[in-house]
Amino acid sequence: MSVALFTHPSMLDHEVPPGHPERPARLASVLKALEGMYLDRREAPLATRAQIELVHDGVYLDALDAAFPAPGERLVALDPDTTVSHGSAEAALRAAGAVIAAVDAVQGGEIASAFCAVRPPGHHAEPWSAMGFCLYNNAAIGALHAMRAHGLRRVAVMDFDVHHGNGTQTVATREPAMFYGSTHEHPFYPGTGAETEHGPAGNIVNAPLRAGADGAAFRRAMETRILPAIDSFAPDLIIISAGFDAHRADPLANLQLDESDYAWSGRALLEVARRHCGGRVVSTLEGGYDLVALGRSSAAFVEALRSG
Predict the structure, then answer these.
(1) Which 8-state DSSP code applies to residue 203?
(2) Are 205 and 221 in contact (CB under 8 A)?
(3) What is the CA angle 62-63-64, rounded to 5?
(4) pLDDT digit string (tens) for 253-262?
(5) How many alpha carbons lie under 13 Å from residue 195 in its C-beta half-sphere?
(6) pLDDT tens-place string over residues 191-233
(7) Which residues contact 133 (CB under 8 A, 6 or more apart)?
(8) Gap between the Cα atoms of 301 and 236, Å rounded
(9) Looking at residues 242-261, what average pLDDT do you find?
(10) pLDDT confidence tier of residue 138, bands split at 50, 70 and 90
(11) Chain centre to alpha carbon of residue 106
């Protein structure tokens, strides 16, 4: 099955302070792991202001634009976890642009599925603020673009990052035609994602996992809660927030997944996509902070999409 890889070297120019976990080496590790794989490699374009405004408030975007430092100036802290450099402006626009372009290519029948190797990540970004290393909510922007530009009636976003995607869930509470499902460690950062959080339209399904949960627990949560809910929603497109920080080697979390679990999740979500939307899947990189585990996990996941 043809899988396109959307990325851009400018994403390496999003600088962070020394010792920060969301560092350029993360993206380099992913791209290195995918080097030998046959993929349709494509350049991520810049998202437009109008596309970003599908999710984010104009007041926030104006404030963010004003915060980006000039060349050579010091990094600017937006919160205790999230900083921006001069290169962050282009990197973030291309991260969102990658998901938008992937949606266009999949919906246009050019490719079957896509993996967006991007940074900064997106799922913590709220409509009104940056948060948790994230500036623009790439997955949510892609989902709303799919509905507005391509007329899709229902889009599902599935998030297996170890941290709950609070920003994506916020967007889903406003958009009944957008499903949000998440497996994540709980209780844990950012504090959202309880099983009781369904949204006013019932289009949110959280499957929290306790610290120490392994791949078997993850697969049970997927099989008993997430996959049946996506089946019931019957989406026209599936977008995956692919965070690989639930890996047992990751330094920022406490779950015990490995590469085989990410490959399994890719195959399982692809099967659901085949039943409802012709196998159309767009995935975008979120977390993952052990470089070796991140590279191996992303390669296993993309290979599952490619060979599936």
Answers:
(1) -
(2) no
(3) 90
(4) 999 999 999 9
(5) 7
(6) 999 999 999 999 999 999 999 999 999 999 999 999 999 999 9
(7) 21, 22, 81, 82, 120, 121, 124, 287
(8) 21
(9) 98
(10) very high
(11) 17
Helix (H, G, I), strand (E, B) or coil at 125: coil
Residue type, 146: A
Helices (H), 68-137: 88-107
Cα atoms in the Cβ-side hemisphere of radius 13 Å centred on 204: 24
Q: Point out the residues that are catalytic.
A: 124
Q: Are strands 113-116 and 83-84 parallel, antiparallel or unpaired?
A: unpaired
Rounded to an integer, what distance in angstroms lies between the CA atom of residue 52 and that of residue 196? 30
Tell me, yes or no, if the pTM score tops 0.85.
yes
pLDDT at 74: 97
Q: Position of tokens 């976890």? A: 81
Round to whole Å and give the CA distance between 188 and 130: 19
At residue 24's C-alpha, the angle toward residues 128 and 72, to 5°, is 75
Length of the chain counted residue by residue? 308
Mean of pLDDT values over 152-171: 99
In degrees, rounded to 5, the angle at the alpha carbon of residue 225 between the alpha carbons of residues 249 and 299 is: 35
The two three-digit tokens of residue 155, written as one number = 């889009």
**96 Cβ partners below 8 Å, 6+ apart?**
47, 51, 52, 122, 136, 138, 141, 142
